[in-house]
Amino acid sequence: MVDAEGVAAVGVRSVAAAAGLSHGAPRRYFPTLASLLAAIAREGVDDLDRVLAPALAGGIDDAAVAYWRFSAERPHMFDLIFRHDLLDGAGGNLREVTRPWIDALAERLGGIDRAIELWSAIHGLCVLARTAAIATTGVTVDERYVRAVAERLAAA
């Protein structure tokens, strides 16, 4: 539902209807919409981890491209995963999965500051490209561009 229609389409009633349940049934498992969204986001984080963890074992540029691909292929899930304003305290323990990503980058790059700089740049490219915020610049953000930025930042 998130991948097809976005976060706004997800509600306790809509999920119940899609699952063929009574409208109150999900409340037994998810007392709030935030807890439901956190469970969905956890599935998305696990999916991203399945592609990102092996890529992190390779090159920094491989990890950047894997991250880029996920954001391009599953933009609504990508958005949900990083909606900490909605998800904080709602369950799912998302940071227990995402923290090793930043730790792996920090180890490879020689520090947490450089890891955050790289992640911020790649995450920003994902968001800026998808929202067409840089469309008028003449720059085409694609996998090749993301790889080049990651290589440049990793070498700095």
UniProtKB/TrEMBL annotation:
Q: Which UniProt keywords apply?
A: DNA-binding, Transcription, Transcription regulation
This protein's record includes keyword Transcription regulation? yes
Q: Which residues bind DNA?
A: 11-30
Please indicate if the UniProt record lists Transcription as a keyword: yes
Under what name is this protein listed? WHG domain-containing protein
* Domain HTH tetR-type positions: 1-48
A single Gene Ontology MF term assigned here is: DNA binding
SUPFAM superfamilies on file: Homeodomain-like, Tetracyclin repressor-like, C-terminal domain
